[in-house]
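Q: Can someone sanity-check these two? First one:
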Amino acid sequence: RMSEEITEKLQLLDMPYANFEISIHSMTDSDPHASGVDHVEFLVSTNPESSLGPLGKIASGGELSRISLAVQSSTAAHSQVPCVIYDEVDTGIGGDTANTVGENLLLVASHCQVICITHSPQVAGAGTSHLVMEKKIINKQSSAEVKAVFGRSRESEISRMLGAKKGTTSSIAHARDLIEMHAKLESQ
C-alpha cells in the first residue's frame, strides 16, 4: 500500500513513469544484526523503458529530492522526525507540478518542521513563514543577509519571484492568490 501511494505521489510530482517498490528480504543468516533481521531496499524506475533498480543507482539529484518528498509526505503521520530540510526540491519543475510540491510540503509540515530552500514562487507561496536570503559583497567580502517577510512584503517577494522587477497589480494579485490557495489547503 505504501509503495502504491508513493508511486502515485511521484507521478503527480512530474515523474509520470515513476514506479516505486519496497523490497524486504530476510537476511541469509539467522544472526541478529544492528539493523534487524531483514534487508530493506527502495527500488525505483523513472522511465517507461527502465526496470526497477536500487534508488541510489537510478535517481538523479532532482529525482531524489522528489522521491524523498513523496516518501516523507506518505509517511509523515507515522514518523518521529522533528525537522526535514529540502534544498530546491522543485528543481526542473514549474506550473501546477510546483503547486503539488507545495501541497506535499504542507502535508509533511503538519507533522514536523519543514525548511525548504526554493526559487519557485508556487513553493514559496505554500510556506507559513518566509525568509529571504540575499548575498551581499561589502569591502570585497561576501556575506548573506536573511530577513523575514510578512504580509505585503511577502507578496512583493513572491511577485519578484514570478518575474516582476517591480510589483504590478497583476503580479501582486497572483502572489496573493498563491499564498491564499495554500493557506486554504493548510486549514483543511
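And here is the second, same format, sequence then C-alpha cells:
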Amino acid sequence: MTKNPRFHEWLREYEEDTDWNTKDADDWLKATLGITSKADLDSDGPEAVKAITAFHKIRRRFVDWREERGFETEQ
C-alpha cells in the first residue's frame, strides 16, 4: 500500500502535505500504527493486534476514498 501512488495522493488529502513518496508513506504508516517494522504485524501479542486493527481501519478509509473517486480497486 505504501508504494501505491494513490495512497500517496490520499495522504496528501488526509495529512494535508504536498509531497509524499514510498519512504514517507512507510514511515507515516509505521508511526501511526506504533510499530518499528511491518514485520511487527506478524506477531500474536496485544500490541500487534492493536496495530493490525488500526491498519485495517486506515486501509478501509483509503479503499473508501478510492471508491468515492471512481478509481479501480487494485489487487
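A (reply): Looked at the second one. The chain has a mean pLDDT of 90. DSSP finds three helices and no strands in the chain.
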